[in-house]
Amino acid sequence: MSKISKKSLIASSIVGALALAGSNFASAASLNELQNGEATIVKASAKSQEKINSIYEQTQELLAEYRTVVDETENLKVYNDHVQRLVNDQQAGIDSLERQIGTIQETKKGVVPLMYKMIDSLEEFIALDIPVNLKDRTERLERLKDVMSRQGISVAEQFRLVLEAYEIETDYGSMFSAYQGDLEFEGKNITVDFVHMGRTVLVAQSLDLKNAWIWEHSSREWKALEDEYLSPITKAIRMARKQTAPDLVKLPVYAAGAGE
Q: Signal peptide span per the entry (predicted)?
């Protein structure tokens, strides 16, 4: 081999070595760049994943809120429907009351004249009936007349009082009672004890137990009784006042055309 060739070979070897070294340097640089790039990508991916996780969590929260809103909306709809039914029912009740009020007003127009007729009939009945508790009955009748002319008393209350008076009058037909009062006989007012059995018999006795009378309905006046009735009447008065035990007692009774 010539010197030139050897030099050339040496030069080529040097160049090759340098090229190989440069190639190694280039490979090391590329690897670093790749590693740096990969690290950057990993970091970027991690940040992206964090963002994705955050967005997912927000999405889940929004979904949960949406479902809650949907549930609340459904509940509100059910509740609103319930309230609407209540309102409709209340309105129906109001409409019914308004119709009833209208009917009541019409009823009042008929009830008020009826009450006046009932009071007039009651007054006539008392005047024709046996004079049992005549003072109380007359005062009750006058109170009814006063109630009918006073403001602030409802028609319902007026009607209740009229019916109550009729019930009391009905009770006199089966009542056994005694009470004290004044009897007019031969132009004199005498304080006596009255006793009656329904409307069948009404008798009276002086407080000194020496005189007795019976109401004669046909003549509408008091008649004096014989002494034989004094003891039975005294006993009847005590029985009516529950001062003695109930027992049979003989009392005078006026029948049509009879004296006893």
A: 1-28
Pairwise CA distance, residues 257 & 100, whole Å? 56
Same-domain status, 104 and 142 = yes
Residues 105 and 179 occupy one common structural domain? no
Whether residue 167 sits in one domain with residue 114: yes
Reference 122, options 164, 154, 179, 177; nearest CA is 164
Determine contact, residues 162/177, Cβ cutoff 8 Å.
Answer: no
Answer for the pair 253, 260: CB distance below 8 angstroms, yes or no.
yes
Helices (H), the chain: 3-128, 134-148, 155-171, 230-240
pTM of the model: 0.56
**46 and 146 share a domain?**
yes
110 shares its domain with 195: no
Rounded to whole angstroms, the Cα distance separating 34 from 30 reads: 6
Between CA 211 and CA 234 the distance in angstroms is 11
Question: 29 in a domain, yes or no?
Answer: no
Phi, psi (degrees; rounded to nearest 5) at 179: -155, 165
Residues 146 and 179 in one domain: no
For residue 7, being part of any structural domain is answered with: no
For the chain (260 residues), the mean pLDDT of every run of 10, in chain order, is 48 48 53 66 74 80 79 76 79 72 66 92 93 93 93 89 93 92 92 93 95 92 94 94 89 57
Which residues 6+ apart lie within 8 Å of 214 measured at CB? Answer: 201, 202, 203, 204, 222, 223, 225, 252, 254
Indicate whether 86 and 127 sit together in one domain. Answer: yes
Give 42's Cβ-side CA count (13 Å radius): 6
**Number of structural domains in the chain:** 2
